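Closing statement on the zinc ion sub-project.
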Amino acid sequence: MAEVLIRGAERLLADAAGATDILVRDGVIAAVGTGLRTEGEVIDATGCLVTPGLVNTHHHLYQTLTRAVPAGQDALLFGWLRTLYPIWARFTPEHVHLATQIGLAELALSGCTTSSDHLYLFPNGTRLEDTIRAAAEVGLRFHPTRGAMSIGESAGGLPPDALVEGEAAILEDCIRVIDAFHDPSPGAMCRVGVAPCSPFSVSRELMRDAALLARDKGVRLHTHLAENDEDVRYSEATFGCRPGQYAEDLGWTGDDVWHAHCVKLDRAEIDLFARTGTGVAHCPCSNCRLGSGVAPLRGMLDAGVPVGLGVDGSASNDRADLLDEARQAMLLQRVTRGADALSVLEALDVATAGGARVLGRDDIGRLAPGLRADVAIWDLRGVESAGSWDRAALLLAGPRRVRDLLVEGRRVVRDGRVTTVDLPVLIERAERALAELMG
Ligand SMILES: [Zn+2]
């Protein structure tokens, strides 16, 4: 029986008020309290804030190798995509694997213990398992989604024809990866979802068939929705309705569905999402970077919509820093609604328990006995926290990176360094990959 005791935290964000210790046994939180003991490993958390691991609900990890591409730096969504598609078409499976490793390592350093990923293009023999292998190596809990694009330029869609796939082949591969990698059991380290890329890159038929397939297999559905004004206009011009109506008509509402962005949801759409338990991945930094707007986070939370945070792809953020996302979520709501629009603890709740709910997990997202031991330990003795009166106010005066990170009780970050992969070597490889991609 493997035990780890996190002992003597200055603050612990848990239901158990005043607790300082967490006892972990076989990857599960066995107890939260004070004065706990073990014969196993002890992690001294003196001077530290301990929080649940953060949950990332939207990402395109392959994009880690296309950060800050000059021609895409100042573009709106559609122009940005047109700039990047030809570069992504040159990716190999090795590029996708490396990008995923680096992206997940960066997320881990920002306190993230569970990440979803949305891979929607498969150039040059790339397969979903290139990302699944990377996640197992880094040691993060992983929710890969099998994305897809089927409507190329010649058929009126946005992506070049070379990047789209046939719809029968897409559905066949969804079945293959679900059967091979989806684990529905509690504590699962890998759960697969089905995720056609967006209404502007796949057909209505594929959206509908994907929903039927996901329900038949008992997996979740994910896509982009209502990201900006262009996106809404496309929906109105092409489908004759707003994005919410489009989603509802094709079976894309329900507590097994989550949509990325939803910046432009109107009142009726927020009510639809609340009524049906449809989740949202809120990606504030990406929305700022692409000038998409401010998502109605406060309105969604008040209505009861399940909301988590997403860093979104590194080509539009360009960081994979989930803590930064929580701070940005808090700041953005205040820009539009005033200083009491979203508190630090509410933003952290969206980043943890909110994300867990969006991914359909009741076994992570909080620090409580019986839940999986996904834990972030933040050292409050650095310069960023010096003089702070509220030690739980991580998003106002706290470190930017974790000191230690446990996933399923395993230390993935120790003393600020990723333990599972050799990050300097990966960064060197990224330099070489860039030379290839820039051609
Ligand atoms: Zn996205």
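DSSP finds 13 helices and 18 strands in the chain. With this model delivered, the sub-project is considered complete and its resources will be redirected to Aim 3.
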